[in-house]
Design goal:
Layout: E1 2-3, E2 6-13, E3 16-22, E4 28-35, H1 37-54, H2 67-97, E5 107-108, E6 124-131, E7 145-151, H3 155-168, E8 171-175, E9 184-193, E10 196-197, E11 203-209, H4 217-223, E12 231-234, H5 236-239, H6 244-251, H7 255-258, E13 264-276, H8 282-289, H9 297-309, H10 313-332, H11 339-349, H12 355-381, H13 388-404, H14 413-423, H15 427-449, E14 451-457, H16 459-470
Parallel strand pairs: 7-14
Antiparallel strand pairs: 1-2, 2-3, 3-4, 4-6, 5-6, 8-13, 9-10, 9-11, 9-13, 12-13
Helix pairs in contact: 1-2, 3-9, 10-15, 11-12, 13-14, 13-15
Length: about 475
Amino acid sequence: MQAKNCTILIYKIIGMNISLEKNDAASSGILTMEVVKEDYAGQVEKSLRDLRANAVMPGFRKGHIPMGIIKKMYGKEILAEQLGKMVPDRLYGYIAENRLNILCEPLSREDEQKAIDFDTQEEFTFRFDVALRPEIKIELNKRDKLTYYQLAPAEEEVNAEIELYRSSHGSHEDLESVEDEDNGISGTLTEWENDAPKEGGRVVEYATLTPSVLANEEDKNRFIGATIGSAIVFNPHKAYGDSKMKLAELFHVEKDVADTITGDFAFEVKKINRDTPAEMNQELFDKVFGEGVVTSEEAFRDAIKAQIAAPFTSYSTTKFLMDAQPLLLKKAGDVVLADDLLKKEMLSSDESLTKEKCEEEYPAAKEDLTRRLIWNTIIRANNIVVEKADIVQLAMRETKDQFAQYGMYDVPDYLLDSFGSEMLKKKEAIHELQNRAIFMKLAAWLKEKVKLEVKEVSMDEFISLFKAKEA
């Protein structure tokens, strides 16, 4: 059926006619449902019989009240109840059957709805406004340019991480005396005063230090030659110079507290060790990354860089998708939405929202909806889906990245599996992982379609990029 300046789709189910009339811009339409007696009579009759079977009324045996009385007493109520169930069921059946993409719940055209007379009416007409999803086309090519900001760890970070690996995979040897300033010393620190332990003074068990980190040669030399059981008296506050962090580590306290500890201490040596870092060779590369994965010092450094940067990949992806939005909005062109219906839906879904506030908030809501429609268009057009394996893999990666944020890169697989499995037991976590997985796939699709410039930036530069976007 055709009408001027509109398109009408008709859908018939069990005698019930439903039609959709689209407006000129196809951004909205009117769903009209015509209900005739044949659509509801059978179910109404059944409900009345069920009610009669259990009804109790003086003067009649249970289940034997005349049907005419039952209809008179309950007929209108049953009919209203059946219509209340049937109309939404058939309405959404039409929407599903015709794969109708709507942006909000169908809204009843109450201004057109006549009062129903259940005493005389047998046929009913219901009309609903619907906001329709607009048709959007996104076509990208290599003339379209986007920048992907990739975090590049500073050289000192990479060097520090390499030294940690060399240390953890190096050799360990217990000594009887402190032979050089790189030997590690463990013992007990006791606050010292007048050549004796200070009464009520601070005592630190399991204190550790390495002479080489002390600020001056005089303090370093105090420990050279010390043996197990030796007690070296020194002033830690002076010995560590400006390094409040090292001082805090020595006393096992916060930096502000450590800065207030200014007296002398006696260090009783209980253990001396020498750690020899592993050589930068294939044996170390294999221990860190697996046999044959890395085969040169340059590749080892690159792998360390990637490892440090890995926990921040999600931030790079977020930034990349944010930066892509202006390009996608331009490609989408003028996206026409049923503004009046969407405002009406906003008002109906939030009773506290006034018309004035709705008008104020709608532009931002429309912009957000348009962005989501564009992303969904890309997802559908390119069959981008998230499988269970994607979620499991991402959960393992997220777990590994969480450990990496604390400098723990060499976590055993069984521990990663355990933490990852716990994450997958939470519905909220699964939902979050699904979203992140789809974002990653969207980013991967975009990278293939456009001319991509990968730009390495430091953490400070990256943070400033986000701040600039927020401003």
